[in-house]
Galactokinase
Amino acid sequence: MTTFGELFGREPDGRWAGPGRVNLIGEHIDYADGLCLPFAIAQRTVVEVAKRTDGRLRLRSRSEEGGFDGDLADVGPGRPEGWSGYVAGVLWALREAGYAVGGIDLLVTETVPLGSGLSSSAALECGAALAVDDLYGLGLGSSAEGRKQLVDACRRAENDVVGAQTGGMDQAASLLGTAGHALLLDTHDDSTRQVPFAPAEVGLTLLIIDTKVRHSHADNEYGARRASVEKAASALGRPSLRDATVADLAALDADLLPRARHVVTEIDRVRRTVALLDAGRIAEIGPLLDASHTSLAVDYEVSCPELDLACATARAAGALGARMTGGGFGGSAIALVPADGADSVAGAVRAAFAAAGHREPDIRATEPSAGAERIT
């Protein structure tokens, strides 16, 4: 295993971790002025980083090929390509925002499972952002408001440098997460609120079912969905679909109607889920998770056979509710299950995948965890 010292000829200044995230509900609406309810998870990406005295970036990873060796001044839209764009883009975005940042040496030593729908990209961005914040003394990581500025830099890295037209939900969850809570993110004004969500306290478990089907948010499908939502809002003469009703959508063309319907109904499902969690009624959110998956599969068409099978099988085996999580076209599903039935649900899903000829899924329990942090 190659060490930081072997790669760069010196020791790192520290180690930082950015967690992945699960979105409990509120999918594909963070770019539509919607409401999302993600939380940080224990799975995380770890980076070892050392500050440089020049503007050079040397970026390497133990889990992915390639990297980058060049000047920060050369970073910009589309440069560098591959995973290193997520890191280099963060420094570019901070510099664009007026912060005095320079070069770094960085090694990625651990990763959130890549392409699993648990936002490995945001985990990498946020771990790197917190490292740069610490090493260059920006002072943003010590407060919620400061971390929101890091969220914006990470989002800009993904949008403007990598070219993936995602919203800011993933980065907000990774940087602002709190143990025992989900993060209610209002993307209309970027306001946040911690919502109690601790399934274990009421005898429940949330399972993550990684289907092992890989995807990329930078592909044309994701951008096409976002374009449809923006076109639907424009056709209705609205800045966004945030406050539209299902009845308002009747004026839309048949190709835009289902995409818009998902956004409008998903925002309502988030509101109803938050109300139940605030009231301590976690077990009652299952039907909302189910309805969210149906909407994503039918109206938004971002599911896949493996995700549909995982959700249907989990429900049949006793889950209170199940849905795909993340951008879709593969990745992971979540299932809310009674703690004493978690093993049987997981076993049923594995058996169903085997019978269908799919790869064996990776299934694990998760709980809301703390956000990005320095670990040494």
In short: The chain has two domains: 4-196, 199-366. Residues 286 and 321 are 4 Å apart (CA to CA).
